Amino acid sequence: MLSTFKIFTYAPQKPFNYTATPSSSFHAALLHSPFLTADADEAHLFFIPFPPDISTRSLARLVRELRWNFPFWNRTLGADHFFVHPSGIDFSADRNILELKKNSVQISIFPTVSGRFIPHKDVTFLPHAPPSLPHAPRNGTAEFLGYLKWDGKTEKELVEDLKSDGEFVIESQPSDHLGRVKSSKFCVFLYNGGVSWLPEAMAHGCVPAVIVDRPIQDLPLMDVLRWGEMTVLVGPTAGASGLKRLLRGVTEEDYGRMRRSCVSAAHHLRWNAEAQPYDAFHVLIYQLWLRRHTVRYARREPPNLES
């Protein structure tokens, strides 16, 4: 893969910066990587850079210009193209945006806005991981069953129930966040309530327990990471007692296996100043590589009216 996979990037219409850290990290790493090629004919995929605050009209015009000015879009209707947008783009009646949405690979930040992620082709990455992660968490007896760094607004009723249980610690502005992570068996995450510290929790051996009210289809790097083997998913209707019962039901053997998987996977979520093998950039590139085989639509020749 490292020696053959090539990406051609279109020149942006005007200079811009990605505002979200993982988006800018990916873009910077791509521009300095051996995957980039100036020869579009040898490219497997084509990257379309555009600012995250682009208007629907401007995005439609951008795709239309690619269709008119380059031969590559029409070969696959955009299926061998990809783009980065933090929250994901929405569907539109405009043909150009519709093809971009339905055919091109979208890279967005987890969790994606509901309805903006297409599982068979799209990819997500987590908000930026901390610059330093431990090589191995320390072993010790956990003081708490679960720890939640709460945003102060999501799932208030459930959180109030958890606050009354001494086996859980709930804090909005913890004075010792890392200490809480290290002293808890499970780190509780509310699906729409902030997941930026997920890599940090995993690296320190705190197994994620994600509270979500629907099936999760946009977990980061799903082609590589086996999330089912290192996370606990629970619906909010289970309440505090249901969450506690579920976490208590995880055997020590299973918990140890999940904890080791978390620590191992955390390093694939790391963004480095200079991309390193098996880090977040290379795992994301691998997911793009898996999507390099696209159906190239045959160009229809005009009918011969003289025959």
From TrEMBL:
State one Pfam family annotation. Exostosin_GT47
Q: How does it sit in the membrane?
A: Single-pass type II membrane protein
Query: Any idea where the Exostosin GT47 domain is?
Result: 3-235
Task: Tell me where in or outside the cell this protein is found.
Answer: Golgi apparatus membrane
Q: What is its main location?
A: Golgi
Gene Ontology CC annotation, any one: Golgi membrane
Cite the entry's keywords alphabetically.
Glycosyltransferase, Golgi apparatus, Signal-anchor, Transferase, Transmembrane
**One of the record's GO molecular function terms:** glycosyltransferase activity
Q: Which InterPro entries match?
A: Exostosin, Exostosin_GT47
| Keyword Transferase (UniProt) | yes
Statement: the UniProt record of this protein carries the keyword Transmembrane: yes
* Matches recorded under PANTHER family: EXOSTOSIN GT47 DOMAIN-CONTAINING PROTEIN (PTHR11062:SF253), EXOSTOSIN HEPARAN SULFATE GLYCOSYLTRANSFERASE -RELATED (PTHR11062)
Give the record's family classification.
Belongs to the glycosyltransferase 47 family.
**Protein name listed in UniProt:** Exostosin GT47 domain-containing protein
UniProt lineage: Eukaryota, Viridiplantae, Streptophyta, Embryophyta, Tracheophyta
